[in-house]
Request: fold
Amino acid sequence: MTEHNKAKDLQNERPLLFPKPQTLERIGGIASIAFPLRINAGPLRTVVEPMLRAAGFSEFAFDGRESQIRVSLDRALGQDKSAEGYRLSIRERETPAITLTAGTPSGLRNGAATLAQLLRQYGERMPALNISDAPAFATRGAMLDISRDRVPTMEHLREIVNTLALLKCNHLQLYTEHTFAYVGHEEVWQDASPMTGAEYQTLDGWCRELGIVLAANQNCFGHLSAWLKLPRYLPLAEIDSLEKSWKFMEWERPGPFSLCPTDPGSIALVKDMLDQLLPHFSSKLVNINCDETFDVGQGRSAEAVAKHGRAEVYFDFVHKIVEQVRHHGFKPMFWADIALSHPNKMGTAPSDLLALAWGYEPDSDFDQWGHTLKHTGREFWVCPGTSSWRSIIGRTVERRGNIDVAVKAGLRHGATGMLITDWGDLGHRQQWPISLHGLADGLNSAWTGEGGGGDPSAESLQVFGDKNCNVATWLEDMGEIDKIQKQISGRLGADGKPTRLKNASAVLQDSTLGWNDPWRPGSAGLWKESAAAATWLERKAPSGVSDLMRSELVFTAHCARVLCERAAERREGPLMERSKLMSDLRAIRDEHRRLWALRSRPGGLDKSSSHYSRMLEEFHPAGVEDVG
Reply:
């Protein structure tokens, strides 16, 4: 593995910029500047200053006298697809030493983000250079899941927005099922610590100041179990029984999931949601989701599906949702998985519905999806993932490959945007650095048009504030400690042999299995090797990051070590009193709870930590609670 705490001499390093600019030319010499920065920007101050403040700079003089930095618009630069591009020049012994030019305010923001990164690295001695830069995708977005237990605090959301802006992100949405404080529906969200309308308006203001479009997000069709399991809403469900099972792809799943598309009460509920949610957003853009509605036709709409077909029933309800969106003057987007499974019916979808083509593995068929959407004349974005959820440790190879195929296909078929998604399945147990690493990788690719896996030194410095420039490499190594197990932990193939595990790390997957579960891919010795790798990474956790972030990194490694040791012991013998393992499991549960409170709201914490409690309960007789 790689040494993770070797310091760098940043002043003598090449420019460490993230995302990487299109072209950067070193021309020799050093420009000396001084703080407070003297900036000649005129009315463009409102564009540039927020970006510099987001990077932590606060010493400015915008009086135009003897300026060190000149900011200007050249409308000729904003006439083509490079409207968000910019030019940045730094000269030795010239006044001003730094000139930033773009064709649009958006381009100036992007240039200011690059300037802030150079200032962060070099301070008062800036290398003379020329940068000409523009993005590969017009929209470069991030989606954070706030419906799988973890809802960020407002303080953390402010930090997230600042970080994303400096990565030249211009779109953000928070995936919502039940975590908005809908008036009259308190029983749905009362234990979830939801976002409020006032909080969304505050977040919207932060985003607008930094050039980020905050889109509304509410799943309006499927993934509504948090609503539909309650007696008041169960009659609206496609599967209107808590006991009835149905097929989610090939898996049996009990209870309600989607709204019944043929029940008039379903669209009435959606109307109430949108009427309450949308007024808090200035963007006039909303994701209605509508994904994975596999239960449609297996319950109350079975007769309609038999008569008209699943696609027609699905799109008929989507049209009703879009009508409600249009009433508010919003543009809708939706996850396109169900639509793409009926490509010959794509033309029946509302014409103004932006399609989000998503897939989270290296073999996701973005090329075919892009081809289909392009040839139906529909605007679309490609949406890979961070590979952080269902992992704890991240999934390095899978993330890189997934982003790579999405970017290539998106550019080939004319996608207008890329949205990197970070989900929270099975307790949202990945720590923030694991998610952030994936988000940064995706946004770098959305800007450069290159595949997953950017410059680790630049990412470490500019995303994590690590002046030793080691944390990104550490995170890459962490996401591979179970690389051998992942190759043999998937379901059995037609030949009876295990396949590659998808949508999870082997570390996480094994922790979900009971002690006596017969599925035990990988030997005890192999799992001990993974535990040793986690132990080494715990000792080598980067020291150049904040105290909180280092605690999160140390915890990730420690948690991985304990779960790998559990996996090894599970292969060595029957369950018995194992005092060290019990103590370690109790410690990671308690540390998970402590760290959660530093970035996230309390709602969902008990559900998340129950995944660790379940493993502890195996050591106790039925009905005896672990109280350690």
In short: The chain has a mean pLDDT of 95. The two ends are 36 Å apart (CA to CA).
